[in-house]
Amino acid sequence: MAYFDMSREELAAYRPERSEPPNFDVFWQATLDEARSYPLDARFVPVDYGLRTLDVFDVTFAGYGGQPVKGWYMRPAGVTEPLPGVVEYIGYGGGRGFPANWLYWPSAGFAYLVMDTRGQGSVWLHGDTPDLPDGANPAVPGYMTQGILSPQTYYYRRLYTDAVRAVEAIRSRDDVDRQRVAVTGISQGGGVTLAVGALVPDVAVAMPDVPFLCHFRRTVGHTDDHPYEEIVRYLATHRDHAAQVFGTLDYFDGLNFAPRIQARTLVSTALMDTICPPSSVYAAYNHMTCQRDIRVYGFNGHEGGGIHHAVEKVRFLNTIWPR
Predict the structure, then answer these.
(1) Apex CA 308: angle with CA 121 and CA 104, to 5°?
(2) End-to-end distance of the chain based on CA atoms, in angstroms?
(3) What strand order describes the sheet that includes 292-297?
(4) DSSP character string of 11-34
(5) Is the pLDDT at 135 greater than 70, yes or no?
(6) Are 245 and 150 in contact (CB under 8 A)?
(7) Could you report the per-residue pLDDT of 12-35, keeping only the tens digit for each?
(8) Which of 193, 220, 253, 290 is deepest in the core (most CB within 10 A)?
(9) What is the 3-state secondary structure (H, E, C) of 96-161?
(10) What does the alpha-carbon distance between residue 46 and residue 37 come to, in Å, rounded to a whole number?
């Protein structure tokens, strides 16, 4: 794949105007207040998957609407003191899979929670969380247009709320240092990370990688790759819904969450990424006012920095939180 987006110089200066709804903060505060009206009911059940160097727990907690959300919680075996925590959100179409899919962070000495993605988990890694209240089983995409005619009904309202509650779930444990919690994720998980970084003001670190769900008003139509392309297909049929659709998406755009992030933030992008174009990542990054940095992978697509960047993130946290 050749370069298709802006030059590095243009990206570094790209700070587009934001289309922020006037009630953006009110909407999200009301959404989270409603979710918190239900008990968190975070349950961590020990399970044995043969991972002798890790303690592994099957997690359930109450997310949006008090609905159960699954996950895995892992930490180094036999370590009892409170550890810094990492919460990870999963890429589009993936679910929590098995604990063996998520060994890196707990093996590096962190208390780690990976959150299942409601309704997803039927493409590249299985999931166990239906998108209630209708009991819909995890399904094949797409999710980009579910409930898209209103911010009240849009799919990502539920997912972002689940993600905030996941931070509250890991902080409910006595073996986690509540002041040292980071959030991270790749692609969809990166977009969710941006939202959580804004919606949980005291989260310490945010590390979104090749984040999805950014700068919808440019990216929908700028790339014809899945899953932004789901919105294009919807609008190709529903020609009279464009204003309504983008009005909804403004409530979920990383571009509007970015200036609200207070956490120390490390972003990654790839210059040949046609799924989450670098201009959409820089659009959010350049609106951040927090302490921030970005890693750019010049010859990669949506795989981004891969394991190289995973090593970079562990080093980043170990520098901030020396142990």
Answers:
(1) 50
(2) 41
(3) 43-46, 54-62, 68-76, 111-115, 83-89, 176-186, 205-209, 264-270, 292-297
(4) HHH--PPP---TTHHHHHHHHHHH
(5) no
(6) no
(7) 999 999 999 999 999 999 999 999
(8) 193
(9) CCCHHHHCHHHHCCCEEEEECCCCCCCCCECCCCCECCCCECCCCCCCCCCCCCCCCCCHHHHHHH
(10) 27
Q: Is-above-0.85 flag for pTM?
A: yes
| Pairwise CA distance, residues 63 & 256, whole Å | 23
**3 domain residue, yes or no:** no
Largest CA distance in the chain: 59
Rounded Cα–Cα distance for residues 50 and 101 (Å): 13
Q: Please list the active-site residues.
A: 187, 273, 302
Domain count, the chain: 1
Q: Which helix (H) or strand (E) holds 306?
A: helix 306-320
pLDDT-derived band at 2 (thresholds 50, 70, 90) equals confident
Integer angstrom CA distances of residue 185 from 118, 200, 241, 268: 16, 16, 31, 11
258-279: average pLDDT: 98
Q: How far apart are CA 287 and CA 282, in angstroms?
A: 8
Find, among 259, 252, 258, the residue nearest to 28 by Cα.
Answer: 252
Helix, strand, coil shares of the chain as percentages rounded to 5? 35, 20, 40
> Is the pLDDT score of 68 beyond 70?
yes
Nearest to 259 by CA among 281, 298, 290, 217: 290
Two structure tokens written together for 104: 């890196």
CATH number of the domain where residue 269 is located: 3.40.50.1820
Q: Is 139 contained in some domain?
A: yes
What is the pLDDT at residue 138?
67
The answer to whether the CB of 96 falls within 8 A of the CB of 90 is yes
- Is 1 a member of any domain? no
Containing domain of residue 115, as a range?
Answer: 8-320
Relative orientation angle of helices 24-36 and 155-171, to the nearest 10 degrees: 60
Tokens of 223: 């790339």
Name which of 222, 213, 293 is nearest 256 in CA terms. Answer: 213
